[in-house]
Amino acid sequence: MSEKREGFEAEALIHLDGLYGLALRFTGGDDAAAQDLVQDTMLKAYRAWDNFQSGTNCRAWLTTILRNTFINDLRRRQKRPVPVEFDEVAERPIYPQLRETDPEGRFFERIVDEEVIRAIEELPEDFRVPVVLADLEGLGYQEISEILEIPVGTVKSRLFRARRRLQQRLYSYAVEMGYIRGE
Amino acid sequence: MTHDERPPGQGVDRGGGSVAGGDLGCEDAMKNVFDYLDGELPPDYSEKVRRHIEMCKRCYPYFNFEQAFLDYLHDRGVKPARSDELEERLRTLLGEVDTEDAEGCD
What we know:
The complex is a heterodimer. By secondary structure, chain A is an all-alpha fold. Chain A has helices at residues 3-11, 16-26, 31-47, 58-77, 95-98, 113-121, 125-136, 141-148, 152-176. Chain A contains 9 helices and no strands. In chain A, α7 packs across α9 (152-176). Chain B is mainly alpha-helical. Chain B starts with 25 loop residues before the first helix and ends with a helix. Classes of the chains: A mainly alpha, B mainly alpha. At the A-B interface, α1, α2, α3, α5 and α6 of A face α4 and α5 of B.
């Protein structure tokens, strides 16, 4: 095995599972698309491996490549994005229903991981991507605005609506499971 | 819907707010809830929101609730996933790149 390959396996390939998990969030659970995304990312990284400074944050570098690869592909596919229609019921805040019974939002902790992952996956793509970037990756509005090439105001509005939709979705699930009383 | 049942941020507390002190009303604080929790407000405005929610019986629990939701999302959203098929395919492709590189050196 070449020195380059040994270095890549030791520093980059160990992040494969983490990148694959992130790719699944970006692609909305589309397994084939997530695998392609990780594969493209890893091959790009391997071809550019000579430029990577050993010992620096390899996970962050790979994540940037993966994110850029996904966004570039998204732009190619979305020539004319269709705005997601406002849904008054799905985007209503849930706090008023829980103010008396669960004001601290303890019910969130009872919801299994798979359910929140499914809820994120089911968001329309225009909403899902800002949520993944902000809430899962921890990026700021300005950074997301630059990555997606949309105004900061649009980032805020999409995040706001996406979070409301996620809350409604998780609330419905919690009521269904009997974790909280529905109204 | 009665006044008490009205969702935060959609009430009629324009400007002054009903319960809070400071120079910011409930409505202004609540409509900025995510900007505040995301740390995206200008420092002086963020300080105004902080002072408001510290003293407001209505906004304080609401902000805590939204914070709990964001913390939950952050902690649960991304889980590593395993695919032996992907790893195997990748190792084969990396081998092909090695071969290309080796041939390029000849």
